[in-house]
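Sample intake sheet
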Amino acid sequence: MRISSFGSKRSRRTGVQRLVEPLLHSRLSMCPDNPYSSLELLEAAAIQVLQHNFQRRADATPPATASSSSGELEPHPLARRGLDVTSSGPARPNDPAGRKRKWLDVVLNDRDVEVDPSALATAGDGYAGWFPSASRLPTPPTLARSRNREFTWVSVTPALEEIAASIPPAPRQITRARAAPFAATAAYPSPPTHHITAALVPAVAAPQIGQLTELQTRTVVEHLGFVLADAKRDVLERLRRMDDGTPSPALPEINRLLLQQMTSLPAASNPPISSPSHLRSLLSEYHSSPTSHDHAFRFVIDFYALMTAFMSVYQMFFEALVTDLVGDVTTATSSSRDIASDFLACFDDADNFLLSGEMDPYMWHYHAIHHTIPASTLPLQLRQLLHASSIRFTTLSSIETIFSTFYTEHFLEVAAQRHQKDHGQFYTPNSVVRFMWDRCLDPVALLFDLLSHLDHHPPAYPTIPLIPLTLDPCMGIGGFLCEYATRVIAAARSAPLVWDSAHALTLTFRALCDSLWGVEIDGFAFHLGKVNLMVHLIPLYRRYVEVSLPAAAPRLVLPRLHLFRNDTLRLTLPEPGAESEWEHTHLRLLRDPERLRFRYVVTNPPYMIRKTGFIAQPDPSLYDERVLGGRGMQAYMYFLWVCLQRVEPERGQVCLVTPSQWIVLEFADRLRSWIWDNCHLEEFFQFEPFKVWPKIQTDSLVFKLRRRHTPLSISFPPPLPPLHTPIPRPIAFLRHTNRKSSLDDILRAYTLWFRQGTNPATSPSTSPSTSSLLSSDPDMQAKCTPPPPRTTISTTHRASFAFLVPTSSSVADRLRDLTAHLPRICDGDTKDIRAPLVWHRGPNTHPVYALVVRTRWAREQFGEETCRRWLRPVFYWNGKSDPASSAAGGGEGKTPSKEVQFWHGRDALRLTKKESSPAEAYMPFREEDDDEEIGVGGAGSSGESAAFYSLIMVDREGAERLRKEEGEEGRLWRYLREARVALQPEKVHKEVAWCHFNQCGVDVPVKIVHPINFGYFTKSQPRQRFFLDTDRRCVTNQCIYFTVKPSHDPGRDGLPYPSHLFFLGLLNSTTLQHLIITHCSYDQQGRTRFFGKKMAGIPYAPPPAAADVQALEVLVARTLDVRRLVIRIAGRVRMRSLVEKMRRGMWTLNEQEVEAARRWMDEGRVMETGVAGMRDGTAERDRISEDRVPTIGKDATDEDRLVTVLKTLLRASSFLQHAVDQFVYRLYRVAPDLQISLEEDLAIELGPEWADEFPRGDLVGEEDVTAGPAQPPTVFASTCMPSWGWKVARRAEEAVEEAMGVLSGRR
């Protein structure tokens, strides 16, 4: 046989050709004398392809074989072994080529060739060499067969996916029989991978029995998406043809969605759409011209159609699942809808969506497609797509993957961005759901009460729960409840006493329905969750049908599912009535935690602030405002309160996934104290941002708690623990730090850590006497903290749980003990007379996108006089950019933001780039506007001429003055009116945009400024960046600033009050940096926010003497001189890297930086130095500075000297910061060993030359033996200044003087 015979076939056969051909090439010469060698090789390859890659529906009877003695065609070798090789085409006698064509037909499906796959398990010895383990393959069950069967193909290995894609399904329809259709993935599991010849396919793992492959799963999702698109069009068409005489469940829901979108309009007494005819006319116009309607209407119609169609498709998919999973144990005449109807009839009428969904706003379409004449083809279309792909469901193992992918890709990512924002709704990954149940569920206890009842009680349904109750207070689409039901069914399957008894299965089914409680605020998600839960109950129903049919058991009647469409934060009771009596009774039960407790409460609450989206004001009768009250309380904390109040004491488990901020932030300080007193803290698992949800930047925390029977605070008399009280374990906190690891890898690492027998969280043999770090994984950080009373919570730092985190060190505890007696650095909730600073935050200049403008643009638009009158310089940076700044669209497929739409066509340069904060320690780095010369201190008396941005100083009263001065046709008035309409459409009571600017600091002559959101401390941002502003620049709510109290401390008479310079150095020190991280971090990633209440917790060590105040002021003044000069040169040379080097304490320059400095020196530019020395808080000119530097000519100086000067200045800046750090160490009495630990925590590295030349000193004043005459005698008595500090100050002064000489052309 020639291999080229494959080439005569059509192009669709090339996939098979590439698979079979290598095998033939490798084995063709094995049996050269055998007349059937080539043919059998081809036959073996065909079997291998069929066995490993295709699903076959078998024929009834093997063919009769002919006798060789009669001269007819000799029986085919495989026919003797039981393989059916019949073909619809005639076979020619004594024609070997015909035989070959027959088996080519088998491989290529060229004709209606039917092969009995049962022969694969009984092939004779002749094929033992090809399939060594063929005799060990399981024999398929006896199948009821019909000749009216087609070939159906299913790829079961990723290497062979192209075969399934290249062979189209046969055109004939499948005739359904009573027995289950043949399914290769269920009845015929793929043999081990060594059966597959290496030359044919690579080694791959066979799928589990009943589990769909990845390709099949993806195919199902694509089919569902295809039907969803058709269903959505059908929904719009049915709405367009809606009759006025028929009640429409869609109209009230569409009006509700429209009212949510039309927030810019006043509350209307009438709905936006008055009648079905009104909606019909709008839809007709929308159908003819979709882009002509208002954006809100188009969004609502499209979104509603998507939700309704999605519900219909999932209910159709539900029918297909019930048919596949239950159809083979029911009557052969049942249709898909009849089988689903029989299953749903077991449930209460309120749960049966076939009965109760006709008037539901999201289920009416599903009823319509089944009851209209002629009937809709959508259900049949979905079944045909699944059958054409030969996909049949035998288990639910792939359902979670299918549904989560379908729900995420075709709903959440398509049109539900607003929906997600309003509800805080994101699909919890299945792996996280399983992990959370693994951590809190006790499989042994699931059926303990049920089995005890079956052993000791008569056959009656008890009044006590037989299965532990579980609650999901924000169930979404039911992922956690479905997983719980799956585990209960798995436990029942492993208990023969339950699985083989119709009575026990009835009790189990009823108890399981009674045990599931869930609440969901969103109607669409609620209905999806109910259907999803019913899907996961199908295996239990199938088993009941299997067991009950022979025994003629009574019809299964289930109680109503405890699922409520309600707001968990309010649990609103329905109006009394016959229809609502059940819901009213059970909601009252749920509202009272003393009457109803749950064994398990597992959920994923919304990540939202209270009053955001649909999160309303909680019912005060359900929550303790003494614990949960306060500004900034996150909504998920209210859900946590619900969980903790309703869980069984001691035995009950609460497991949540939330952001990690609550364990350290101040908004939860009272709740943390309550949790520590009333709960057992057991396990915490940290996840990096984007890990659990790829599009969510917030880091996540999975944690498990148990409610105490008696609070810790009740210590007398000692409470007796109740029965079945678990032994308290150490508090385990795990954090996986490898950002490249997948979510599944991290979950496996967490699980493996708890399976080890050496950690105190699981092994009682290990003594948890002290907190310990345990992990064999280099990427794992783990810490076990002894439980109370051996560990006590701190009340100094607002009951923070930061001490539980593996990254926490003893430095914070030592600093807390060291500074506990000190006053605070600024005022907090109350005025503290000992606090030297006052905290301020810039005003909320909403809409900030319009009230902050580029100064040059404003001058061109409004004129010089208007800008002088109404604009002031502002410290601001643009944190956004328009990726499509040349167009108003904001990029393909994306809706442009309000900011982009507003500035498009006004100031094209406003959003050309995303700017980083210009804040730098001591001295800000100010950008330039195009080629405008911008001085560091500003040009002119107030600096407005050099400001890159300016703030429009118009408040409520200013708006009236502006109207009187310029009139409503004035350019600034028109601009502010346009800004209000575009950016504040809901503020209809305001004519123009304005803001309260009284906190902007324009009237403050000297202030210490810092961005309020600082983010992380990293290598490029190693320190805080407090800088001094003496130009009266405004700030927005991007920044906070400090002012020094004008009064003296009454207890410190005779001592000079520290100036701004003193506090500037103090705030930029390493000691304060560590204290800021401790007090101001808002998550476990180390991000910081400089809120007033947080800053008020930082301790302040007053200087012991006037000499200490003067000493630190000298160091800071020299630092200002050096940094001002470096920043000025960096701005002129366009070398921002110099500023980054200065941040990091580096002074080496690379080749590019050296070349840039030389090139700038060659250009001969005029530069204002702006070096203004500040001595003892004054602003007089330094003696080494000059007002203006002369022109630098090419022959005036040596370019290499500038490079040397830059290195000297960078070195001086680094050493000056080191001196400031050492000064503050002494001021706070930080010992050298604690200094080293503190710097290690902050990742601050000091080279060996630092230790040699500038050693750490003791905490007492030292006699200077090295500084010589550089130390002024007036500050010799300083006890905090290091002995070498004066040397550093003198060197810095010399470096500035040398730099000035180079820049002025003097040697």
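Comment: The first strand starts at residue 55 and ends at 56. The first helix runs from residue 14 to 27.
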